[in-house]
């Protein structure tokens, strides 16, 4: 009988639910829209400048035509490689200690806490730190300082993933290897590392992705260089700071190059992110 | 089956073999010790890194601390080229940092929670992974790309269409007409907050999605069984159950927002003067450092490092609180 007239209380609850769920749909569309908008802008503005010149010509002087980003791209690759080359081994070893040797020690929980904070620490602070610790004592901006700044950013990322991944390796594997008489270090290197390989690679890839777009820590450690420069004791050209300088300049040619550089960096970083995810999940699904 | 005659003396070959085995064992042991200590050293270097950062910032900031003392925190004026001595105060950048991050959270928290509710309660299974990856990719886009995009695309759009509409809408409302006062500008505190909100969105979404997934299905089913709508389940069961984790995630995002540099430096306008309108240019600590540090020296540089030290202390506290909350949550789950 009561079904003839719908209860206004129930109708109100239903309406509230509809509104709230509608807002949730809206929020998701809102979030995805930004990704699409940014990527579309990058492609439409950057695609025009994509040519072979971009990879073979050096950055042009202001108010000229043509030119490319060759020196900046090579410089960035070099800085990233050295930064990861220094940071990743330290991070791997530190993560190994935390997961294997000091799993339940007080030291490990302190390091984990500090590491998590360093992981989210503002990258400009890392730049200031390296400026004070490397640039000032060395007497000038240098590629080494920039690479070290990147290494400082790499370490926490790799420490975190290494520890997490090694903790996932089942203990019976280690016990079996130890029972065969394998010393601890070989148990780690031959058994634990091998079992966690995909995860460890993921961590390093994520670290590469994280530092290849970093700008703030490079601003006052390597500065930038207009020319072809491989000398690590001086300023080295690099993509993020080049983009930064080009954007802040009214020169239309520079602006075009900045968009192309931005397109390159973003797609490199996003592919690295996706690659890391694919490698990471292929292991989990097994 | 051959039995080993232990009374026979060892042959030459056997002797050298046992010798080499001892050597191998010894070198393995050495390798063991080296590897353990190396890894311990690497682990301790993480702590040294933190110590190094604090010490190096403190040394760099010392001249400014000595000169300005506590006044640094309460002075708004920023005049680095004043003779004989520059007058430098951190109030403007501190205000900008806090307000831009606060506004970013006001935008990002509801949206981020909305997305996680969508992902855990409403989304078809097949779309769940692609959508969460897409949202997480927002965190992968480098900061400078956000800055550039905000500078060339978002800034002009907001100044031409969004800001004038809001300004005229609130023109007759007291208080709000001061906060949303004109003139519209390409570079403003609000633009920075919006960009920050987009940048921290993936952090809030990822963590709240993960903690939402920890709610026992039985609890939710019981609520649904009692006749609750989806929204009532989320509001009365899921969110109370995951409160600590959600707050931890929000604080983590706040820590990120406070220190974000390049994106903000491009869109905020670098104005040290505090203005009531959020559509006016402002500055943040990180933006001030990024735009002025390379050309600074002496007391000016020291003051910028002091700003950096303040930022580090601020983010450290926020992030430490976030971590402690998330750790408490993990411990409770372990039980």
Concise structural overview:
The complex is a heterodimer of chains A (286) and B (335). Helix content of chain A is 76%, strand content 0%. Chain A has 286 residues and is mostly helical.
Description:
The complex is a heterodimer of chains A (286) and B (335). Chain A is mostly helical. Chain A is 76% helix and 0% strand. Chain A has twelve helices and no strands. In chain A, helix 1 packs across helix 12, helix 3 crosses helix 9 and helix 5 packs across helix 6. The longest helix of chain A is centred in the N-terminal third of the chain and has 39 residues. The longest helix of chain B has 57 residues. A two-stranded antiparallel sheet of chain B has the order 1-2. Helix content of chain B is 76%, strand content 1%. Chain B is mainly alpha-helical and 335 residues long. Chains A and B meet through helix 1, helix 3, helix 4, helix 5 and helix 6 of A and helix 1, helix 3, helix 4, helix 5 and helix 7 of B.
């Amino acid at each position: 009988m009561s079904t003839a007239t719908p209860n206004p209380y129930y109708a109100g609850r239903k309406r509230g639910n509809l509104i709230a769920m509608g807002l949730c749909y809206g929020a998701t569309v809102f979030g995805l829209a930004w990704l699409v908008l940014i990527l579309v802008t990058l492609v439409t503005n950057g695609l025009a400048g994509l040519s072979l010149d971009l990879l073979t010509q050096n950055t042009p002087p202001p108010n000229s035509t043509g030119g490319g980003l060759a020196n900046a791209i090579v410089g960035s690759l070099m800085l990233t490689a050295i930064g990861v080359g220094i940071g990743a081994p330290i991070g791997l070893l530190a993560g190994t200690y935390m997961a294997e040797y000091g799993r339940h020690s007080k030291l490990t929980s302190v390091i984990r806490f500090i590491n998590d904070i360093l992981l989210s620490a503002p990258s400009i602070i890392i730049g200031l730190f390296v400026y004070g610790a490397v640039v000032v004592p060395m007497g000038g901006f240098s590629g080494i300082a920039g690479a070290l700044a990147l290494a400082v950013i790499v370490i926490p990322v790799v420490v975190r993933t290494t520890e997490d991944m090694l903790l996932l390796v089942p203990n019976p594997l280690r016990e079996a290897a130890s029972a065969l008489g394998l010393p601890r270090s070989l148990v780690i290197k031959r058994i634990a590392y091998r079992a966690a390989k995909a995860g460890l690679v993921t961590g390093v890839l994520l670290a590469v992705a994280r530092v290849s777009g970093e700008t703030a820590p490079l601003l006052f450690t390597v500065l930038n260089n207009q020319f072809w420069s491989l000398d690590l004791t001086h300023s080295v050209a690099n993509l993020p700071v080049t983009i930064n300088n080009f954007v802040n300049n009214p020169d239309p040619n520079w602006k075009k190059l900045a968009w192309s550089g931005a397109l390159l960096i973003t797609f490199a970083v996003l592919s690295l992110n996706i690659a890391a995810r694919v490698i990471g999940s292929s292991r989990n699904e097994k | 089956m051959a039995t080993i005659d232990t009374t026979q003396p060892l042959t030459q070959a056997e002797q050298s073999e046992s010798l080499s085995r001892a050597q191998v064992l010894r070198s393995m042991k050495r390798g063991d010790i080296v590897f353990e200590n190396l890894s311990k050293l690497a682990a301790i270097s993480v702590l040294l890194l933190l110590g190094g950062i604090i010490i190096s910032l403190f040394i760099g900031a010392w001249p400014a601390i000595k000169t300005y003392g506590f006044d640094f925190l309460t002075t708004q004026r920023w005049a680095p080229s004043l003779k004989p001595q520059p007058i430098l105060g951190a109030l403007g950048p501190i205000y900008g940092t806090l307000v831009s991050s606060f506004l970013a959270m006001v935008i990002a928290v509801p949206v981020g929670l909305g997305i996680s509710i969508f992902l855990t309660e409403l989304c078809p299974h097949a779309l769940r992974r692609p959508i969460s990856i897409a949202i997480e990719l927002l965190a992968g886009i480098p900061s400078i790309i956000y800055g550039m995009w905000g500078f060339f695309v978002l800034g002009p759009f907001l100044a031409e269409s969004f800001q004038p509409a809001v300004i005229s809408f609130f023109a007759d409302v007291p208080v709000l007409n001061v906060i949303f006062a004109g003139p519209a500008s390409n570079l403003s505190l609000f633009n920075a907050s919006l960009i920050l909100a987009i940048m921290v969105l993936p952090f809030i979404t990822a963590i709240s999605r993960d903690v939402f997934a920890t709610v026992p299905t039985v609890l939710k089913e019981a609520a649904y069984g009692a006749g609750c709508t989806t929204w009532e389940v989320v509001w009365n069961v899921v969110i109370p159950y995951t409160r600590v984790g959600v707050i931890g995630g929000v604080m983590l995002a706040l820590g990120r927002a406070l220190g974000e540099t390049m994106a903000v430096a491009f869109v905020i306008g670098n104005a040290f003067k505090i203005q009531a309108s959020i559509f006016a240019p402002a500055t943040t600590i990180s933006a001030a450092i990024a735009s002025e540090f390379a050309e600074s020296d002496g007391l000016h540089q020291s003051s910028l490092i002091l700003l950096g030290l303040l930022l580090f202390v601020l983010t450290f506290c926020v992030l430490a609180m976030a971590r402690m909350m998330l750790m408490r949550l993990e411990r409770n789950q372990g039980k």
